[in-house]
Structure formats: structure tokens, C-alpha cells
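Office hours follow-up: a student asked to see two folded examples consecutively, so here they are.
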Amino acid sequence: MSTQTYRAWATVDTGAIRHNLDVIRRRVGDTRLMAVLKANAYGHGAVPMARLLVQQGVHALGVGDSGEALELREAGISAPILIVGGVIPGEMPRVVAADIEVNLHTVPMAEELNAEAERQGRTVRVHLKVDTGMGRLGMQPFEAVPFLHNLRRLKHLQLVGLCTHFSYPNERNPAFTTRQLETFNLAVEVARRLGYRDLTLHASSSLALFGRSDAYFNMVRTGIALWGHLPGGGAPWLARLKPALSLKTRILFIKEVPEGTPIGYNRTYYTPAPTRIATLPIGYDDGYRTALSNKAEMLVRGVRCPVVGRVSMDYTTLDLGPVPDARVGDEVTLLGGEGKAAITLDEVAGWAQCVPYEFLCGLGRRVVRVYA
């Protein structure tokens, strides 16, 4: 269907994603890849991205919760899927039945999962997450050691992986990440001494896989780099990645206004001179945040125009002063390139005072995903 039928749409460049996957593979060599598809694949569409990446030969898929995992299974994705987050007891029956791998964080969680697997006559593949300094999910190292001793009594759980998560692997002072890595290596050594010798070991997410080659083990988890971004650093590797998503809308209405005209809720902006104001059919329900009000810029016919007035639920207003020949129906680029100009994700995140991941993940369901 032509984008002429859409009010707001995100175009996902699948060629850019394949390119980014090649860059990652050149970096990590033969290390296996888990593609992390949390939050609707960071706004790119989990099911289409899963199909593309499985076709491209990734070893496994990572998701944030059981709903995301079940969505992929219901779409016919048969590749290994790991829930990297937590699973609560009420979710366990469907998770076990759908052959989904689970990260273990507590002994009670492991016991409840084992009981559900026994009830269904199944065996669940599990990974043990060791909290080496992130302070969220995962067992403390002193808990993990006795748990590994006792795991064999849980006959319906098969330990296939051991993992951790770095707090911030690209800090100028790498000492904390190095301590995390040392702690994880000790847990790996204990597991091996207890006879767990064929485990999938994974610690590195996108930033770490470009910054800490000593933390690859035999699998890395890549999310944001697949979509062409490395927030917080990563150069010169960042220059080799291609942003995959662009966000566009179109001009719905144009109004000529005199000097001193208030625009939008709470009159946060008054026009300093006569101008033309465009109303765009995109707002915070679509993920274009209120924090962008009176700060952001968009491209109209390749020229930057300022967002003026307060971004509302369904609409955003734009000053067309820099483009006097703009017309109703013209495309407007909120994120991405147009001609020689571009609005970058780092710019948008800076205006919105959020991390780049957050803006992508927040794209709403009214934004149509178009795959090119």
C-alpha cells in the first residue's frame, strides 16, 4: 500500500539491518548472536524483524517478557527464544507449553517453573542470570553457587546457559565492568567444576560487543546496534552502522497567521511575525513526546522547520516560515534523512531529554511500519 494512505509511518530499511548484522559479525567473528527484540524490536516490529534475522542466521532471539515471546511463537517463529526478563507464576503454563527458554533469577522461581514443567510432562531449558553489579534481576554470586549445586534435583529444568548484564561497559574508567567480568568468570568456573561444560555463556550487549572483546564468551546479545545506533559511545564502529528507521508524517492543514498568534495548549508560543503554521497528524500518542514542544525541528522539502507550540495527543504544529511554498499533503520527516539533510536520533533524544532507545521504543501503534 502506498504511504499516501498513511497519516504517520516509520519506514524500516531491511537492507540497513542486514548491513548492521554484517558489521556485528565482522566484529565478533564466530561468536553466536542473540538478536534482542524487546519492546517491539525497539519500535521496528518484532515479528517482521524476527523473521528477517532468523533468515539471516542468528542463533537465538531475546525478548523482555512472556507476552513478547508468545507473540513470536504465535507468528510461527520456531527459533530458540529466551525471556531475558522475569517470569511470574501465572505466565509459566503458556511459557512452558510454547517451548520458551527462561532466565532464572531466584530459587522460588526455579522451583515453580520446575513444578509447572512436571505437570505438563516437559523439560524447560533455562539460563541462570548472575547479578554481577547491575542490581536488578539475577542471583547474587553467593546465591548462584549453592543453586548450581542443587539444580540437578529440579529434574524438569535443563541448564543450558549462564549470563550476566553489564551496568555500563563503555565508561572511560573500565574498572567496574572489569570487576563484573571477573565475578562472572568465577561463576562460569564454578559451573564447569560442577559438570556444566556445554553452557551458552553471554554477557555482552551492543555496547560491550563493540567495546569489550574480552567479554564475548560464546554468544553476544545485540539489540540497538542492529538498528544502527550505539548510544553513549561506540565510535568508530558507530560510523559503520546504518540507522534503519525513519519517521514521517504529512501536512494535514496550513493556516496563515499574523504576528502575536498563540499556538497550541497553554499558549506556550506566540508567533514573532506573520507566518504559516502547519498542523501535522502526529502527537504524543504516536510517541512524539510533549518534551519536544518548542525545541524540535523537522524537515519539509529538505529544509528544517521548527516545532512550535505544545505537542498534543494527536497533533503537532510546525512553523513553515523557512519553506514558503510548502503545501497540504507534503511529507514531513521527523527522524531520518531527506535529500542532503537529516534529523538524527541523537538530536531527537536530546530535544526530548531521553535516551535514544526510549524514543524508538515509544513509537505508538498508530504509526504504520513500512518495510523496504
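And the second, which I mentioned at the end of office hours:
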Amino acid sequence: MNQALEQVPASERIHIGFFGARNAGKSSLVNALTGQEVSIVSDVAGTTTDAVCKSMELLPLGAVMITDTAGFDDDDAALGALRIEKTKRELYRTDIAVLVADAAKPLSETEQELIALFRQEHTPYILALNKADLLDPLPQAANKNAVYTSAKTGLGIHALKEMLGALAGTAGEERYIIRDLIAPDDLVVLVTPIDESAPKGRLILPQQQTLREVLDAHANALVVQTEQLTGLLRILQTPPRMVVTDSQAFRAVSEIVPESVPLTSFSILMARYKGFLQTAVAGVDALKQLPDGARILIAEGCTHHRQCNDIGTVKLPNAIRKFTGKTFRLEYCSGGTFPADLTGFDLVIHCGGCMRTERELQWRMRTARAQGIPFTNYGVTLAACTGILERTLMQGVLLK
């Protein structure tokens, strides 16, 4: 794999999940597809007890994340239920599912249940009828979504790759972070505060991705810290096309940037990119209406060491308290953890979600909405608390 592909973040890869009952040959098929020993293979049913993930390049798809899941029919009373629940969670971040079934047997109740889940989550899937080398003669595949495969002989592996490539090509209209908002030769100013919570030696992912899209649009980017912004704007002969800032610097930056210059944040652009900005804007309206003591879930898509001025545990709560004049009960989740049952919560505030896939964030949003829980994000919340939400939505442009 070349270095560029190695650097593609997991959230930007095509996630392919292999699902099925125990001993259907999922792990063997994953190894055959990738040409690597990604998963442990054994004749003992239930060898894969937890999801196994592998980042790689898979032609003709490009950068992918392959996930081999535990058997969905695990009959262990306690651990089995946990493994099945974790397998379901893997589905929520899966772009394309591969259901691996024994070609010599009719589809089981477990496999039918998985197909129902794929359809419920609108997840495109392929039915890989494995161990087909044991069939003689080889029958015709029942439908266009099915393919006979053999991890042992390599039968159908090329066809499976081609089918995956075809499904990946129907993902829909491409979304952009900023590229569709600017034109060649435009100037974009990116305000990236470097404080004790900033990662050492690098920019955070939304800043990197935004900068790259500016360059891809053949526009110009100037990257500054908040303290240098006034001096930069003073020496520019013409105003920038737009200014993008870290949300936690909204108050200072909005006072510096003229009203005539569009202003937004990396977090708001990320919510738009991930497809939940409209929900986030609607959700933040609930903040003012919440009573004292209401429960708010603050969800972060990554895990990191908390600093003294951490945005999720310090800056965001302080801004909310000042804006509402109320004290709320704040609870946290991070990384791949997100409660399916949100009973008792009154609001969910999510981070920008740069480390989670669009599909997973959509699931988190739908989970909250289905239970009547307003769902918003850091950037929208901080903009509302600063009193500049409409401005940071660029007077509605970002909601179109």
C-alpha cells in the first residue's frame, strides 16, 4: 500500500463488513479476499469472538476498512448476547455488508434476520454463498446480489471484488466540506488555535481536510492563530472569500472578522459534510427550553487525554451555563461507544464527528430522533451560545 492510502483516515474509507452465522467461513473468505491472514481460521465454530478490522487498499475500491464480525448465532447465554450486540454496532458503521452463508444449505433464520437488518438500515449487501467448491454441479445464483465463492479454491473471489466495486460506485452524490463553497483563486483564512489541547506537531483532522479541499479547489489558504488574525486582515488588499475557525474561538474571531465576510467553523462544516447539519440546527433550539438539572449526553467520536481546558468537559459546559443560566447534568461517551437506549436524556450534543463514518453518525442521529431526543453538535451549540448561529450558517447557505 502506498503512503497516501495508508494516511486515509478510517472515517473516510469504505467500510466493508462480513456477517453471518458461526462456521460459515467468514474469516476464511476475508483472508481470501484480502490475500492476507487478517483473521484466525479454525474448524471450531465461534473462533472469531470480536470484530477484527483491517485497513488496506482493495482494488477496484481503493482505501477500505475490512471488518470480520463474530457469528451472529452465538449461543453463549451471556457473552453471546454481547457479541451479537457488538456485531449490530459494526453494521451501523458499515457501508457495504457481505453476508457469508454455506452454499450447500438454505438460508437459516439467523441469515434471514441479518438480511432484515441490512434492509432496515438501508445497507447495500452481497450474499456470498461460500464453500461452493463442494457443489457439483454449481447452480445458477438466485439473484444479482448473490455470488458463489470458495475461500479454499478462490472461486468467485474476483467476482466478489467486482460486485463490491460496483456497490461502492453507487454511494450517491459526493459531499464536500468546503470545496463547493469556493472558486479558484479565492482566499480562505483558516483560524487554528494552538493551545494546550491542540495535538503536538499536527493539525486536527477537520483542519487538515478543509485545507486539502481548499487546495483541491485551486483556491488559496492562509492558516493563522487567533492572535494573528487582526494583523493578517489588516494587510490583505482584498477581504477573504470566507473565514473558517475552530468553534471554541467563535467569540474572539467573530469580533475581528467584518460582518461582510462569511464566517463559519470546522465543526459546522463537518456536520454538513456528514449529513446532519439541519438536524443539529433544529436540535440546538432545545437548549434554552431545558429545565435546571436536565440530562445532556456529550458524545465525542474519538478518545483522547483530557486537558485542563478541554472543549467537551470545560469550554462547552461553561458556554452552555453562561448562555442558559442553568446547571445541567452532563454525561459523556467517546470513541465507538454510543448508547442505543437514550432514556432519561434530554439532549445529545455530538462533536464534529470527523473520526466516525457518515453512516455511523447518521445512525446516532436517527437513534436520538427516534426516541424524541434533540441532537446537535459542538459547533452549532457554541455558535448559538455566542449569538452568531445565523452568521455561521452563512445566512442559510450551508443548509441548502
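Two things to take away from it. Confidence is low (pLDDT under 50) at residues 1-5, 40-49. Residues 79-92 form the longest helix (14 residues).
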